């Protein structure tokens, strides 16, 4: 069975997804994952990807020649919307595989790279990203991980950090320095690195929210075949812009929609149990203000999606404005949830079954929004300089 | 609500709306720029009168009024555009009172009242006054006459007042009423005190609750759109100033501390614009949650715009504290907007009650569509 058979009628397509989700999503998955070990979580993520694959929803938005179904943006948004509505698991283990890798290879990869790597994702291949370094965070272009040509290979030495799911990854999107004498943006080269190569060591990083989603990569004399280069030597910075731009769009949209259902479920539950905060006029007002901002944020996310199909999209600062507004809003919402939950809300727990069931976990996790993917301070630079035309000094 | 006027509006495409906005913006930029505005607030011109006459000739005052009554029938979409652009230039004149009264008459006025007043309002021949706040204050009715004192939004030469009188709303001819101007810090707005003694209404709108709700919704949208337009405009002016003002040998626009603040202002403005658009959309498609979102657009947008406009004064430095620069004009206007209709806390309380009711009925107030 493939849900894609219904693609020509959008409302039938939506109904098929809804029916499938109601059958496939285990009702207790959140409770199970709240107690799961890392291995159980990874197994669950792989199972979920396999289920999506069975009905044609693993990589439906990719071109048909690379194993996708060439679905339109509207279809993809519909999928995301239904996933959020059903509170289905996110495919977090596969974020780089599904978004960043195709976002990079489709415009910049060779034919051989595209046919080799794109189809692999539907079979569960996990990708990670090797961009940031301990001394190159916001100033990414100052990266120092070296790549030196040796025959038909490059030899890599250096360190990478904040690499999501690198502990489980098969491949890595890697930025390296090939010309240390060139101006910093001009000496960078982009590679696909096999994570099983000798000399690759990954150490998980424990986060402030108790999880370990990031890893640190230590690369010692790792040999990468020259054919794994994406784009030309020393042209990696330009290729990297495609990777970074791919983060915008559907994934944030889905996040916004999930928050909507989460807030709604939280509110319904509060009404049902007659929660104390409902009797506090000031808290009630605060909550209703969040809803107004949330609707605005969801509308802005829809604008980003509309815009992303247009040629001038890469120059837009709207994604930065959206990131600033939605991540700060998320932080304020989580902060509200912590305040109203009292001491119980700070009992140690990770993913909870109830909406905002572990508010302190959600609050600590909200920093990933304001810090990852270019800190909000970098977003402010972008808005001011590119959007408002204020000078770079 | 605002359904009858918006049946045609829902079919308006974005290109038509953009063209409309551009035409209004072009006229106002030419005639209500900073120089003209300063001359007006210093009492050196009758800009409010000339703009009003022109608005009537150009059909602006009929944007929300259905075609059979001499308007263009563009409902909430047309009104949001007009108020947004008037706000951008801090244009003086009794627009919020008149256009909101007209829209309320469209909703709950009855045929005779519509026939009498709507064509005159659409042409600009008559302007209206409405209570500045829609709280418990009311005129009193005794026999055929109404009496009482109300502080209203509207010009001293307003043709009529639309106001609550006990268990109904009434239209009172102001030609023979005692009307005194109440000078405000915001000199771009007319506020008047109306004193009535046994005046005979020229029209009665018997459904008080529906009339109050209609006026609240249309005023909320007007005030929100005006605030968002004004705050965006003064932010743009502020950024332009920061690019020319040099200190420490460079334009102050290059300092990161200031850049980050303006980025935050731009973010707040983007959110405010979406809140206005959301309210418009819910009104146009006549959703049961339209009132909720119009109320919240007013409460959230006016407060955000006060913060933005306040920061624009500060980002100007010393000249921001002078009468001769623009920021104070915009700040005073948005401060008045913030307290019109009713306190924002009360609007949020109403919205919370509406949310609870919608949720209890098994529906969602958060639908957006794709």
Structure description:
The complex is a heterodimer of chains A (393) and B (370). Chain A has three domains: 88 residues, Acyl-CoA dehydrogenase/oxidase, N-terminal domain (Butyryl-Coa Dehydrogenase, subunit A, domain 1), CATH 1.10.540.10; 108 residues, Butyryl-CoA Dehydrogenase, subunit A, domain 2; 140 residues, Butyryl-CoA Dehydrogenase, subunit A, domain 3 (Up-down Bundle). Chain A is of the alpha+beta class and 393 residues long. In chain A, 47% of the residues lie in helices and 14% in strands. Chain A contains 13 helices and eight strands. By secondary structure, chain B is of the alpha+beta class. Chain B has a domain of 152 residues: Butyryl-CoA Dehydrogenase, subunit A, domain 3 (Up-down Bundle), CATH 1.20.140. In chain B, strands 1, 2, 3, 4, 5, 6, 7 and 8 form an eight-stranded mixed sheet that branches. In chain B, strands 9-10 form a two-stranded antiparallel ribbon. The radius of gyration of chain B is 20 Å and the shape is globular. At the A-B interface, helix 4, helix 8, helix 9, helix 10 and helix 13 of A face helix 8, strand 10, helix 9, helix 10 and helix 12 of B.
Structural class of chain A: alpha+beta
The CATH topology label of the domain at 209-360 in chain B is: Butyryl-CoA Dehydrogenase, subunit A, domain 3
Number of strands of chain A: 8
- Relevant CATH superfamily of the largest domain in chain A: Butyryl-CoA Dehydrogenase, subunit A, domain 3
Number of strands of chain B: 10
What's the arrangement of strands in the largest beta sheet of chain A? 1-4-5-8
How many structural units, i.e. domains of chain A?
3
Poorly predicted sequence stretches spanning 5 or more consecutive residues of chain B: 1-9
Largest sheet of chain A: 4 strands, mixed
- Name the shape of chain B in a single word: globular
Q: Strand share of the residues of chain B? A: 5-15%
Whole-number mean pLDDT of chain A: 92
């Amino acid at each position: 069975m493939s849900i894609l058979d219904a693609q020509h009628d959008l409302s039938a397509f939506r109904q098929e997804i809804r029916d499938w989700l109601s059958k496939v999503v285990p009702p207790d998955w959140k409770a199970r994952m709240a107690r799961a070990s890392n291995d159980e979580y990874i197994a669950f993520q792989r199972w979920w990807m396999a289920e999506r694959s069975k009905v044609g929803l693993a990589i439906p938005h990719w071109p048909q020649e690379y194993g996708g179904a060439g679905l339109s943006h509207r279809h993809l948004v519909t999928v995301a919307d239904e996933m959020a509505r059903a509170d289905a698991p996110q495919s977090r283990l596969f974020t780089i595989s599904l978004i960043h890798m195709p976002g990079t290879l489709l415009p910049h990869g060779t034919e051989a790279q595209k046919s080799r790597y794109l189809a692999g994702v539907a079979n569960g291949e996990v990708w990670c990203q090797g961009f940031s370094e301990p001394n190159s965070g916001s100033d990414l272009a100052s990266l120092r991980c070296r790549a030196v040509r040796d025959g038909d290979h490059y030899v890599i030495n250096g360190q990478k950090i904040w690499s999501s799911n690198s502990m489980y990854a098969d491949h890595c999107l890697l930025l390296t320095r090939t010309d240390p004498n060139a101006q910093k943006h001009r000496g960078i080269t982009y590679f696909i690195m096999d994570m099983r190569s000798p000399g690759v060591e990954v150490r998980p990083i424990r986060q402030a929210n108790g999880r370990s989603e990031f890893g640190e990569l230590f690369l010692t004399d790792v040999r990468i075949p020259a054919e794994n280069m994406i784009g030309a030597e020393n042209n990696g910075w330009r290729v990297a812009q495609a990777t970074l731009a791919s983060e915008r769009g559907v994934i944030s949209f889905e996040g916004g929609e999930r928050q909507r259902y989460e807030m709604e479920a939280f509110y319904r539950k509060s009404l049902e149990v007659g929660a104390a905060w409902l009797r506090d006029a000031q808290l009630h007002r605060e909550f209703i203000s969040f809803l107004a901002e949330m609707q605005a944020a969801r509308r802005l996310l829809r604008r980003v999606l509309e815009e992303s199909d247009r040629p001038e999209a890469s120059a837009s600062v709207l994604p930065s404005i959206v990131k600033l507004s939605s991540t700060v809003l998320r932080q304020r919402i989580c902060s509200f949830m912590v305040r109203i939950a009292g001491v119980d809300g700070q009992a140690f727990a990770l993913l909870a079954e109830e909406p905002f069931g572990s508010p302190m976990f959600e609050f600590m996790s909200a920093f990933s929004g304001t810090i990852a993917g270019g800190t909000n301070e970098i977003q402010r630079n972008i808005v001011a300089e590119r959007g408002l035309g204020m000078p770079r000094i | 609500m605002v359904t009858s006027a918006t049946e045609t509006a829902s079919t308006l495409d974005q290109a038509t709306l953009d063209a409309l906005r551009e035409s209004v913006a072009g006229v106002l930029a030419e005639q209500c720029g900073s120089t003209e505005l300063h001359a007006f607030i210093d009492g050196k011109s009758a800009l409010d009168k000339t703009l009003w006459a022109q608005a009537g000739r150009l059909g602006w005052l009929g944007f929300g009024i259905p075609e059979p009554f001499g308007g263009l029938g563009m409902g909430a979409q047309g009104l949001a555009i007009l108020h947004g652009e008037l706000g951008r230039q801090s244009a003086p004149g009794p627009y919020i009172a008149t256009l909101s009264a007209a829209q309320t008459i469209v909703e709950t006025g009855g045929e005779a009242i519509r026939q009498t007043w709507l064509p005159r309002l659409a042409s600009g021949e008559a302007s209206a006054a409405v209570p500045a706040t829609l709280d418990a204050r009311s005129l009193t009715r005794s026999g055929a006459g109404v009496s009482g004192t109300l502080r209203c939004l509207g010009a001293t030469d307003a043709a009529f007042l639309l106001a609550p009188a006990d268990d109904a709303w009434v239209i009172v001819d102001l030609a023979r009423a005692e009307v005194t101007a109440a000078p405000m810090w915001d000199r771009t707005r007319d506020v008047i005190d109306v004193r009535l003694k046994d005046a005979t209404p020229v029209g009665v709108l018997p459904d008080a609750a529906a009339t109050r709700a209609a006026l609240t919704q249309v005023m909320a949208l007007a005030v929100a759109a005006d605030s968002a337009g004004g705050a965006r405009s003064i932010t743009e002016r502020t950024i332009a100033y920061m690019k020319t003002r040099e200190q420490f040998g460079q334009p102050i626009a290059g300092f990161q501390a200031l850049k980050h603040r303006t980025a935050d202002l731009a973010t707040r403005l983007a959110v405010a614009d979406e809140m206005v658009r959301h309210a418009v959309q819910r009104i146009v498609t006549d959703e049961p949650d339209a009132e909720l979102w119009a109320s919240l657009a007013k409460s959230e947008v006016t407060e955000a715009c006060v913060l933005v406009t306040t920061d624009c004064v500060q980002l100007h430095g010393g000249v921001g504290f002078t009468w001769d620069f623009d920021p104070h004009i915009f700040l005073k206007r948005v401060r008045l907007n913030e307290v019109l209709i009713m306190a924002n806390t009360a609007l949020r309380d109403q919205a919370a009650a509406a949310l609870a009711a919608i949720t209890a009925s098994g529906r969602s107030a958060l639908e957006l569509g794709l």
